[in-house]
# Entry
Amino acid sequence: MAAGFSRKNLKLWALGFFVLTNLFVFYVVWAETPGKLKVYFLDVGQGDAIFIKSPSGNKMLIDGSSGKSKILSELSKTLPFYDHKIDIILATHPDQDHIGGFSQVLDRFDVDYVIENGGSSQTRAFNDFQYAVDEENAEKILARRGMEINLGAGVIFAVLFPDREIFSIDSNDGSIVGKLIFGQNSFLLTGDSPIKMEEYLVGLDGRNLESDILKAGHHGSKTSSSEIFIKTVDPEYTIISAGKDNRYGHPHDEVLDILEKQKTEVLETSESRTILFESDGKSLKSKIR
# Structure
């Protein structure tokens, strides 16, 4: 009787293992199936972190929050548990609230390329970031105007700024500004770029700045988002990435007034949490997570 009971259990165990294995394979195939472009504006408190997944599966993380926030937690909600790969990380500029979490990201994920603006900072966060990049043995790339990063399936990240060496200018002034393009849809991502650089880009690019989605510069500070810039970009949605009840007062009322005047829909990570946009190259759909 004991032997029969054992054989019965063995059969049940084998059947259960077979079912679980097939369910796991199905989950992996389903999760990896190419689909739409997904752009997540992660809820990381007072900082920036934008995660991009192209229909081909290539992944890019723009900025890495302050390090005191929950970027790893947010990424764990965005990626399947078995996925430890991010193809590209991009630091718009070397301020704490944009690079502070990158050392943790590089420790947790395999990263092939690290894109920077060429600036530096005398901070522990910057030193930790550079050490982590060296440990990862990722290839460093210097972002300059005219560069196009191909994320596959027709998704392009075009660098609009810097167009020069930025050693001698303010950290925010040297922020990487880029336009993510997929078919008829586009996202303008600005780091902490201030008004003078916004107006410089308006002079360079004019209506080519027009985008469906704008990530407002400097977390909604009045030092960014000039009226002429917002009018030129003419976004359907504007995203403000800032911490709830932050000590800087972001977003500033002046900026919200300009955005209201332009009739762009404002979404704030401090209120909406992580914000996801999906694009098929023709239309956009927003989701609040």
User: Anything to note?
Assistant: Residues 1-33 form one domain.
